[in-house]
UniProtKB/TrEMBL annotation:
Keywords: Methyltransferase, Transferase. Its EC number is 2.1.1.44. This is L-histidine N(Alpha)-methyltransferase. It comes from the Archaea. It comes from Methanoculleus methanifontis.
Length: 403
């Protein structure tokens, strides 16, 4: 049985909100290819609300106030927003599989995607406001300066945002579009959390009366094939979250983005750059201890979901820069020898004193290393936008060899 996972707050700013889950997502386990049926279903539904598709069993949400809906060619109102659910597997199944692999590996590990339950998302929001954590502020200010140029070349079409968190960055882009009120733009956020999608889109629909929204409830590491292939696309992946992927995982993800891009499409990616080590390490060892609490919270997630008996008080937070790998590594260090039971896996895990669990990698890039990452995935950097010290950057990339 599923335990009751607390829901992330709707207003969470986590850029990994694409990896936050909700109980309501689990009821739709069918993973059917997009058939076009969903479109017909939505277009013929007069009103707004949730509807279970009688054929696929998936639910669709038709949102918006039809009194302000857009009209189609025949003069009938068309809802401005629609959500489609493509989730294929459950949170707890994924967690069980990952914890079994992670607790039996030589270097014990827990994937960082499991940080973001309700408490973890709240702590991450606090991290983003910490004086030591420069990334969120820098990225916003870089985007503020870059959005005019980005939107001038994009013009209109589909604005796809992977793991949006809030509507802040999409608003900046839509404000900078050549046409007012979101005219000609369909905003397509992709996220496993329906509540995060709702949070990211409600305000936008209110603010931009000509904007259309297609929310894709899905995992952006697997479900990008469901993004409609039509017109021009601007794909965004903000927050430096690409740095939380190992190289093979980043390659897979970037290749799947490249796979949905056409000749004129662009992909804007936020990258945290290599910088003086004390600055980097301070960002992950804040004086207020928020990052330490965020790190330890992952054990509470495993306890709650799998019935484990980790004692977070017996683990210490450690974060340091690995110069060879150019990445921050976050660990939980066992302060004493202990055994931890994980009943759902029928597993007992022994820890020696000082043994660690790797909970996160956060890669830091140079222009060269980022260029290599993109080109290995078939992408070419077209433009860089950064702050004067180049502590953070937005790379605007295209599909290599296409234009
Ligand atoms: C989401 N991600 C980009 C953050 C990072 O900096 O790697 C997560 C984080 N971990 C600790 N502090 C913030």
């Amino acid at each position: 049985m599923w335990s009751d996972t607390p829901r992330p707050t709707a207003a969470s700013t986590s850029p990994w909100c694409a990896l936050r889950w909700r109980r309501s997502n689990r009821r739709n386990d069918g993973h059917l290819p997009a058939s076009g049926y969903e479109n017909n279903y939505v277009a013929s539904t007069p009103g707004s609300g949730r509807f279970n598709c009688p054929v696929t069993g998936r639910y669709l949400y038709v949102g918006g106030d039809l009194s302000r809906a857009m009209l189609n060619r025949t003069g009938n109102p068309v809802p401005r927003s629609e959500f489609r659910n493509y989730l294929s597997s459950g949170y707890r199944d994924d967690l069980a599989r990952d914890i079994l692999a992670g607790m039996t590996a030589e270097q014990k590990c827990i994937p960082s995607r499991y940080f973001y339950d309700a408490r973890g998302s709240q702590l991450f929001e606090e991290i983003c406001r910490l004086p030591e954590y420069y990334q969120t502020r820098l990225e916003l200010s870089i985007l503020h300066g870059a959005c005019g140029a980005i939107m001038e070349s994009f013009g209109k079409g589909d604005l796809v945002e992977l793991g949006p968190g809030t509507d802040l960055k999409a608003s900046k882009l839509i404000d900078a579009a050549p046409e007012p009120e979101g005219e000609g733009i369909c905003y397509i956020p992709v996220d496993v959390s329906e509540s995060a999608l709702a949070a990211a889109t409600e305000g936008l629909l209110r603010r931009y009366p000509r904007l259309r929204v297609l929310g894709i409830v899905g995992d952006f590491t697997r479900d990008l094939g469901y993004i409609p292939a039509r017109g021009k696309k601007l794909v965004t992946f903000f927050g430096g979250t690409i740095g939380n992927f190992t190289d093979p995982a980043a390659q897979r993800m970037l290749r799947s983005v490249a796979g949905v891009m056409g000749e004129d499409d662009r992909f804007v990616v936020g990258l945290d750059m290599v910088k003086p080590v004390p600055v980097l390490e301070a960002a992950y060892n804040d004086a207020a201890g928020v990052t330490a609490a965020f790190n330890k919270n992952i054990l509470a997630v495993v306890n709650r979901e799998l019935g484990a008996d980790f004692d977070p008080g017996r683990f210490e937070h450690r974060a340091g820069f690995n110069r060879d790998e150019e990445r921050i590594e976050m660990h939980l260090v066992a302060s004493a020898a202990m055994a931890v039971g994980i009943p759902a896996l029928d597993l007992h895990v022994a820890f020696e004193r000082g043994e660690t669990i790797l909970t996160e990698i956060s890669r830091k890039f140079t222009r060269e290393s980022a260029g290599r990452l993109f080109s290995a995935a078939g992408l070419t950097v077209e433009r860089w936008f950064s702050d004067p010290k180049e502590w953070f950057a937005l790379a605007e990339v295209s599909r290599a060899g296409l234009g």
